[in-house]
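Example 3.
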Amino acid sequence: MINLYEVTETNKMISEENLDVRTITLGISLLDCIDSDLDKLKDKIYHKIYEAAKDLVKTGEEISREFGIPIVNKRISVTPIALIGGAACKSAEDFASVAQTLDRVAREVGVNFIGGYSALVSKGMTPADELLIRSIPLALSRTERVCSSVNLGSTRTGINMDAVRLMGEMILSTAEYTRENDSLGCAKLVVFCNAPDDNPFMAGAFHGVTEADKIINVGVSGPGVVKTALEKVRGESFEVLCETIKKTAFKVTRVGQLVAQEASAMLQVPFGIVDLSLAPTPAIGDSVADILCEIGLEYAGAPGTTAALALLNDQVKKGGVMASSYVGGLSGAFIPVSEDQGMINAVQAGALTLEKLEAMTCVCSVGLDMIAIPGDTKASTISGIIADEMAIGMVNQKTTAVRVIPVIGKGVGETVEFGGLLGHAPIMPVNSFSCEAFISRKGRIPAPIHSFKN
Amino acid sequence: MKRTIITVVGRDTVGIIAKVCTYLAENGINILDISQTIVQGYFNMMMIVDTVGMKKQFGDMADELASLGEEIGVVIKCQKEEIFDKMHRI
């Protein structure tokens, strides 16, 4: 039987160490909504999402109450809209109106984000894909809760450099369109290499075409829990360090698994995956950078950071896979800058640069995340940053992503405030040497040699 | 059997257990196990209860116990047992 010590440990994790379930994300396929009439399409989309998700928030709150664990976000992901809107949307304006439908239904069912304003263009773009991409600035400036993502490359297909070039321009354009709000639109826009179909986290969540009609995916979190556990093993060997992270990750993931199963049963929607990422928030003590410091670094970004992060990421996965049979494709540690007070401190201390962050993305989940850069950064430079990150993902057969925010009207040394979970960020300097000639080449980078595995 | 864990944490005072047990008895909730410690004047109790005979909704019980806790000056939480089982048992 459960004892007092175990109960106290769990409740301390929840009340003092910020253990929470970061998100229950309901994936909904919109393939059966496709119609060549735009109004009919929007109507079908609205009703399908509303019917599927009307109880999502209530169910999340009920589970949270029964187990005494906070469930911070309830969200929705849908089939990439480029596929759904292709037959009906003839202009960027048409696509943006679909985004407004998504925004409206998200508000009505009470979710804080809806992901899937997306295109998958790792090898080439259809006219619909290109139109959707070109509509992103408009869509994100007219909506509040819609998140957009574009998959630009994969290990199997290589990198679509035409799309990389276009996305550099679109990120800058989104920043311009939302300049009144410190270019907030870019915080809801991410580009991927090897994007997973079942990611529950925003801004990159979409419901892949290989998925069932509806699915529940859950993202857990708990950097604070790992940090507190590591405080007790200061100065111990790597073996003890790794063992501690692994055991903690196991416990955290089991909570996610439980919540996922409950949500699945209550909503009568199959359970997909638990994503066991350590996802930080701006709250004090909820930081991945603090874990790195606890492992033995003065600041995140100091020499040794990449090794420490590699170790952390690997142990999180090892503990997590034991806890759930269905673990998501992103699992590991996230290293967003604006959402992690420890990362912000490291940038302000001069310990952490964009280049070091890039190196860190080679060994952790996702990639360059929530990084504010000067508003006068050139589109080709942003495309260069994206291409570098996509190359890391392609060659290492892992997911990588870029979510940078060129803050219009601001420069290095200033800070930008996004509010809520998105946090605040110091604007980081970007290497100012040009990559214009490289980015303006047409076509794609071929798949790497190790993609030929057949 | 539907097992729930009730935890009571706060400054020690006369009648904490009596008040909580009275509430449980009145609502048809059966106590299966109680463990309790006092560390530096702080009262720390865990009860394992069976709520199968309870007529209320889980959320109402949790709210009522929480407000009872406020009256006594302690924090009372109700959680279904599975969260602890999942976390601490393979």
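The interface with chain A takes residues 5, 7, 33, 35-37, 44, 46, 48, 58-59, 62, 77-88 of chain B (CB under 8 Å). Chain B has three helices and four strands.
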